[in-house]
Every structure is written in C-alpha cells, then in structure tokens.
Amino acid sequence: MNSFRTKMRSKAFSEELAEEIIQSNSFWQDARIRFFQNKMAVLSCFILLSIVLFAIFGGYFAQWSNEEIDWSVLGKVKTEGMPSIASGHYFGVDELGRDLYARVVQGSRVSLSVGVIASIFALISGATWGAIAGYYGKRLDAVILGASQITTAIPYIIFFVVWQAFFGRSTSQLIIVMILVNWSAGLFIVRGQVMMLKEKEFVDAARLMGLSDFQIIRKHILPNMLGIVVIYASLTIPEVIMFESIVSFLGVGIQEPATSWGKLIAEGARTMQFGTLWQFAFPAAIFALTQISLYYIGDGLRDALDPKDR
Amino acid sequence: MLRYSLKRLLVAIPTILALIVIAFFLMRLAPGGPFTAERPLPESVMKNVLARYGMDQPLYVQFGTYLKNLFFHFDFGPSFAQKDRSVNEIIAHGFPVTITYGFWSAVFVLLLGIPLGIIAALRHNGVWDYTMTGLAIFSQIFPNFVLAPLMVLLFTLVLGWLPGGGWNGGQWQYIIMPAVALGTSYMASVARLTRGQMLEVLNSPFIRTARAKGLSERTIVWRHAMKPALLPVVSYMGPVFVYMITGSVFIDVFFSTGGIGQDFIDGAYSRDYSVLMALALLYITLTIVLNLLMDLIYAWVDPKVRSAL
Fold this sequence. Notes:
The complex is a heterodimer of chains A (310) and B (309). Chain A has 310 residues and is mostly helical. Chain A contains 15 helices and no strands. The longest helix of chain A has 37 residues, at 100-136. Chain A starts with a helix and ends in a 5-residue tail after the last helix. The longest helix of chain B is centred in the last third of the chain and has 39 residues, at 217-255. The termini of chain B are close together. With 309 residues, chain B is mainly α. Chains A and B meet through α8, α13, α14 and α15 of A and α5, α6, α7, α9 and α10 of B.
C-alpha cells in the first residue's frame, strides 16, 4: 500500500538487492549497523516486543477471565463499567459486562498469532515459488510471475468472503485464505537471489556431484536466503494483521466467543455512541501501536538494505 | 496503440469468462446452500423450491440457462434469500451508491494527493513536507476501519456536523465521510509517491539544464518536471483502485450507505449464492476494467511505452 512496500515488492529493486547481497561479504553486518542506528526502528522493536509480551503474559495480571460476566455492572456499563484499578477492570468492561482487559489480551493473542502463522506459511510458499521461478527461468518463470500479478489484481476481500461462504467460517479457514491470498509474498526477492546464486561456482560443483535440482535448491540455495525471507516477514505480518482485522470488523472473520483486534474495534465502534469510548480506544490504540512499530521497523529495514540509498 | 488496447481486451475477456465458469460451478457444487436450514424442508417442498429456481435440471442445462440469461438479457437471476428481489434489482439499487462515493473518493485522492506531494517536494524539508510525512504515518496507523469510527466520533457525535451513516438519496453531507474515510490512506500514498518522484525529477540533469537556461521556476515545474513526475502516479492508480474496491465493502457496511458491499456481506451470511457470485463478478470485472483503463492511460501518456507498442 505504501510506496516503500511497493518498492520492496518490485522486480527491479529485488534484482538490484540480490546482486548487492551476493557481491558484498559484509552486507548483513553493514545492514545491521545501519538498522541499529535508526532510533525509531529500535524503539519500535521495543514497543512491539512489549505488545507481544502483553499478549503472552498479560493474562496473568487480569482480575477477571475473558468469559466471566461482571453482573454488578451489567446494564450500568456507561456509569460503572469504565476503566478503573479498583474494580479490577483495567480497561473497563465491554457491552456484555466482560472484562475488556482480558478480552484485549485474548484478541491480541489471536491477531498476532494469526498474523505470524499466516505470514510464515505465505513466505514459505512465496520463497518456494520464487526459487522455482528463479532456478528454472524461461516459461515457468513467466507463468509464475503472471500468476502473481493476477492475484495482486484481485481485491482480496472478494475472494475471502466468497471462500468463507462456501467453506464455512473458522479461524483455520481464515488462515488458509490469507496464505492463499499472500502466496507470492517475497517471491520477487527470492527469485532475484536464486537467479544470481545459480550461476555461482558452488552450485555448479553441487550439480557436478550429481545432486538433483531439488536437492540443490533445498540444501544450497534456500539456506542462503533465510535472512531476506525473515525480513520480508516484517512487511507481510502487518498486512495480514490488517486483513484479519478488517474481515473480523465486517463480521466474516474471527467468530465469537473468540475475538481479535478488528472485532474488538468493531464492537467499540458500534457502542461508541452510548458514551463507552474506552471500548473503542483500547483495542484501537494497541492495534495502532502495533501497526506503527511494524511500519517503522519495515522502514528501517528498507533503509538498511537499500543498495541505492547509501 | 489500437493494437495494444485490443490485445489487452483479448486477455481481459477470457479472464472474466473463466471467472463466470468457476463461479457458477462453485455456486452449484458447494456443500449446503441457501435452502439448507437447521430444520430441513420436507422433501416435496424442497423439490418445489428447487424447481422454482430451475435447480432440478442437470447442471449443464442450468449453466446454459445462466449464460443465456447473462449474455442476452444481462440477467443474473433471482436472489435465493431475498425472495421478492432479483439480483439485477439489488445491483441497480446498490451499485450507483457505491460508484458515487467511490468516484468522489478518487477525486479526493487525486486532487489532494498530487498537489500535496508537489508542494512537499518544492518545499523540501519545510513545514508542508513534515505535514505530509505525518499524514503518511497517520494513514498507516489509522486504516479506514479505524479512521471511519474516529471520524464518526468527531464529526457526528462531538461536533454534530455530518450524519454518521445512511445515504438519503446521495446528498452531499452523506457522501463526505464515506469518500474521505475510503480515500485518506491512498491520498497519503499518492502524495508520498508524487513527492518522491518530483524530488527525483527536480534533481535530474535536464532540470539543471533548464535552470541554467534561466527558465523561471514555474515554467520548470509546470512544463518540464510535472509530466515525468506524475507518470508513476498513473501506474500506481491501478492497484489503488483495487484497494479502494476492497475498502468500499467496509465503507458500505460501516456507514450503511445501502451500497453493494452490504448486500455482498449479507449474501455471504445467508449463503445467497446468486447474489454473492454476481457481486463478486461485478467487483472483479470492475477491477479488471479499471486496471485496463489505467494501463491504457499510462501507455497513452508515456512516450516510451507508446513507441514500444
């Protein structure tokens, strides 16, 4: 969506970067130094880490569980359900009288894990197809590139809604669709690198030793690309989280009693007019913090890696 | 140019045809359907219901009828869930709404994004430049589904200036928030892209030559820098339209505009396959057509592409 993301996804940039990585021995070292000089990126890493820790361990500090209904405030949510340390509802309660703090922890877990799981599989798929395209080239390359262009030209939500209508709504279906939609994540960069790597002597040597194409790709080429694929995760994860949030907001994603940031934001937005603003503010703030830290991390990585901007 | 357009059309048409085939068979072969309720209908009733929708015939006959109706009468058939409405009526009712605020949103994106980007580039590192960077980051943290509630909170609940939803025949008050909420993040991207391109162009040798010739800054910007700087923006608009279509589904639902996004989501809930498929086809056709249009404009504007055709 952003121009820098578009740039990292572009073919020309990927090929340039691939050349730089392979030619320069100290590439990763330099990149690391440049990244850690970027203060916003480092700060964002800490914020993101705290959000992850909040999702994992936040539940231990909750006074209420995420299912328990606080009957004493039900019906009086506006006047008595607000955030307070005394009542144990740190973030207030939602419209059903459930503890919002516990719900936000629950939603963060779902959103983050869906984002991470779907991104990992999408990247595995993207890297594999990219490796095939780069290694074999020619017709196969053209077909794979064409297919990736077609998928990016389809509004993903259309595909998603149709899929969920046919195959039922569940978290696992949600993850499957997100992998399908993002199947070409990181494809260009891996393709570019493989195109360079396959001309290297060690690949020739492997071929002379009689290794099959599959073995060469798996043992000699893919391990060389782990770094860049991990970095691509920083671009894919926020997009997947965004995707999950928007479909959950629309009510076709995560289903009750499970929840996610998008769903919590939707509930908050619906009840906003009754004056219970915290129901919108807390999930939206955590969502926004996650997005902005991932944005700065991505930005920092781009700057650290960009072969031109030095 | 003509040959290029024809070639692109020749790719687009089979794509849409293939989509129709896939859509139809998915629709009919999917497990369950609009008539499967928790308490199943008696067999005789079910038979009548299926006959009413022509679903008792063999699949290929159904497919033939569907295609015939679609191509000769442009008829998507009846809605399975909304008994008294045809799919065509649903589209005729909702589509103009979505297109109306979508159009104004695109106007907002271009008419605000491009000037903002140019000003930011001309006042590099000035106030406008920082404002714009701030805007870009803002749009990143507040995607449309966070921005829209925030706007409703501010303009409807606190200030009371604009209605928080509905359509009311498309009065301007009802269009503003959907159009702005849909467009803001793309407006920021367009501004950012324009700024980057403009900076690059302004630093290029031919602009230095123009400066050396003593041309006024205005002539340089308007006559020489503008065109090459805006080219990438044109090619970026294709993907932007794709995202905007996605966003419009959300806007329709959130602002209850009565646009097709709401029918689409309702169709998914009630497994109203005829509505669902027709709208999916409509969305995708729209995407393909808009992308094609943008590519053609790009080819038409860019002499490098034009001569290569």
